[in-house]
Protein backbone atom coordinates (compact mmCIF):
# COMPACT_ATOMS: atom_id res chain seq x y z
CA UNK A 1 0.00 0.00 0.00
CA UNK A 2 1.22 3.48 -0.75
CA UNK A 3 0.74 6.50 1.48
CA UNK A 4 -0.15 6.75 5.14
CA UNK A 5 -3.63 8.20 4.75
CA UNK A 6 -6.97 6.51 5.14
CA UNK A 7 -9.08 6.36 1.97
CA UNK A 8 -12.53 7.90 2.45
CA UNK A 9 -14.98 8.26 -0.43
CA UNK A 10 -12.35 8.86 -3.09
CA UNK A 11 -10.12 11.21 -1.08
CA UNK A 12 -7.13 10.47 1.08
CA UNK A 13 -7.19 11.96 4.58
CA UNK A 14 -3.78 12.35 6.23
CA UNK A 15 -2.96 13.10 9.87
CA UNK A 16 -2.12 16.67 8.82
CA UNK A 17 -5.61 17.01 7.31
CA UNK A 18 -7.13 15.80 10.58
CA UNK A 19 -5.13 18.31 12.62
CA UNK A 20 -6.16 21.17 10.33
CA UNK A 21 -9.82 20.13 10.57
CA UNK A 22 -9.95 20.17 14.39
CA UNK A 23 -8.59 23.69 14.90
CA UNK A 24 -11.16 25.68 16.87
CA UNK A 25 -12.88 22.54 18.18
CA UNK A 26 -12.88 20.92 21.64
CA UNK A 27 -10.03 18.42 22.09
CA UNK A 28 -8.38 16.23 24.70
CA UNK A 29 -4.58 16.32 24.77
CA UNK A 30 -2.98 13.47 26.73
CA UNK A 31 0.59 13.95 27.88
CA UNK A 32 3.27 11.30 28.36
CA UNK A 33 2.87 11.87 32.12
CA UNK A 34 -0.77 10.73 31.95
CA UNK A 35 -2.24 14.19 32.56
CA UNK A 36 -5.13 15.25 30.27
CA UNK A 37 -5.83 18.77 29.09
CA UNK A 38 -9.28 19.52 27.69
CA UNK A 39 -10.15 22.70 25.86
CA UNK A 40 -10.44 24.43 22.51
CA UNK A 41 -7.53 23.87 20.11
CA UNK A 42 -6.34 27.35 19.13
CA UNK A 43 -3.33 26.35 17.02
CA UNK A 44 -0.48 23.91 16.64
CA UNK A 45 2.72 23.68 14.66
CA UNK A 46 4.80 21.02 12.93
CA UNK A 47 6.51 20.11 16.21
CA UNK A 48 3.08 19.44 17.79
CA UNK A 49 3.43 22.46 20.09
CA UNK A 50 -0.15 23.26 21.08
CA UNK A 51 -2.01 26.40 22.12
CA UNK A 52 -5.38 25.84 23.80
CA UNK A 53 -8.13 28.07 25.17
CA UNK A 54 -10.62 27.43 28.02
CA UNK A 55 -8.29 24.68 29.21
CA UNK A 56 -8.96 22.28 32.08
CA UNK A 57 -6.31 20.01 33.60
CA UNK A 58 -7.32 16.50 34.67
CA UNK A 59 -5.11 14.23 36.78
CA UNK A 60 -6.35 10.65 37.25
CA UNK A 61 -9.72 11.74 35.85
CA UNK A 62 -10.13 14.47 38.46
CA UNK A 63 -10.34 18.16 37.53
CA UNK A 64 -7.31 19.87 39.09
CA UNK A 65 -7.05 23.32 37.47
CA UNK A 66 -8.71 25.62 34.96
CA UNK A 67 -6.64 27.88 32.73
CA UNK A 68 -7.64 30.56 30.26
CA UNK A 69 -4.87 29.79 27.78
CA UNK A 70 -2.38 26.93 27.87
CA UNK A 71 0.70 26.18 25.82
CA UNK A 72 1.97 22.61 25.64
CA UNK A 73 5.37 21.66 24.28
CA UNK A 74 5.04 19.04 21.55
CA UNK A 75 7.54 16.51 22.91
CA UNK A 76 5.23 15.99 25.93
CA UNK A 77 2.18 15.05 23.81
CA UNK A 78 1.09 11.42 23.66
CA UNK A 79 -2.04 12.06 21.56
CA UNK A 80 -4.70 14.59 20.56
CA UNK A 81 -8.31 13.45 20.39
CA UNK A 82 -11.49 15.27 19.45
CA UNK A 83 -14.24 15.41 22.03
CA UNK A 84 -17.24 13.36 20.90
CA UNK A 85 -20.38 15.38 20.47
CA UNK A 86 -23.58 14.32 22.16
CA UNK A 87 -27.18 14.98 21.16
CA UNK A 88 -27.23 17.78 23.73
CA UNK A 89 -24.39 19.48 21.78
CA UNK A 90 -26.48 19.46 18.62
CA UNK A 91 -24.81 16.56 16.83
Automatic annotation (TrEMBL):
Domain of life: Eukaryota
Compartments (UniProt record): Cytoplasm; Nucleus
Function: Component of LSM protein complexes, which are involved in RNA processing. Component of the cytoplasmic LSM1-LSM7 complex which is involved in mRNA degradation by promoting decapping and leading to accurate 5'-3' mRNA decay. The cytoplasmic LSM1-LSM7 complex regulates developmental gene expression by the decapping of specific development-related transcripts. Component of the nuclear LSM2-LSM8 complex which is involved splicing nuclear mRNAs.
InterPro entries referenced in this protein's UniProt entry, alphabetically: Lsm6/sSmF, LSM_dom_sf, Sm, Sm_dom_euk/arc
Family: Belongs to the snRNP Sm proteins family. SmF/LSm6 subfamily.
SUPFAM superfamilies: Sm-like ribonucleoproteins
Molecular function in Gene Ontology: RNA binding
Species lineage: Eukaryota, Viridiplantae, Streptophyta, Embryophyta, Tracheophyta
Gene Ontology biological process: maturation of SSU-rRNA; mRNA splicing, via spliceosome
Name the UniProt record assigns to this protein: Sm domain-containing protein
GO cellular component terms, semicolon-separated: Lsm2-8 complex; nucleolus; P-body; sno(s)RNA-containing ribonucleoprotein complex; spliceosomal complex; U4/U6 x U5 tri-snRNP complex; U6 snRNP
Key words of the record: Cytoplasm, mRNA processing, mRNA splicing, Nucleus, Ribonucleoprotein, RNA-binding, Spliceosome
Span of domain Sm: 14-86
Annotated SMART domains: Sm (SM00651)
Principal location: cytoplasm
